[in-house]
Amino acid sequence: MRILAVSDVPAKKFYDYYTPGALDGYELILACGDLRRTYLEFLVTMAHCPVIYVRGNHDDEFLTAPPEGCTCAEDQIIVHNGVRILGLGGSYRYRPGECMYTERQMARRIRRLTWQLHRHKGFDILLTHAPIRGLNDFDTLSHRGFMCFGPLLDKYKPRYHVHGHIHRTYGHDIPQIDHYGDTTVVNAFEYCEIEF
Fold this sequence. Notes:
alpha/beta
């Protein structure tokens, strides 16, 4: 399965300079947050595949006006063509906002997924906005990852963890692809192609 992962800023290739057919061949689009509603609606209209998304720390408006035609994966496992996608959006809390969480709040969200994780026998892709703590995140609260993602990846060993939030323009040494144990970690800033 050919997957397009997007996050944080619209990819000019698929929006400003879009040419007919540019999205052909993708079987799934994963959106990791902080993307405008109009961009996600454009993608789902032009692509011949679903757009599954989680919310970023700037996506509070999606709570009342979600992008039309797209599927929200927050706090659930979505199965597409046999691929199990677990969604946990939002960032580390650094100011008031609906899509930001403390470490304790994110850990509670994960605990509430116990039955779904058991029923689906785990998951294949962890779709988040924030990264895991200690892997290409920063010490500042606004760009800190979540420690509780570590035990989740350790236990279920998904093939991919796809996240956004850490803009690769923040520094020349921020990788797009990294690894955490058996899991390939993808920073989807702007866009990244994944083969599943």
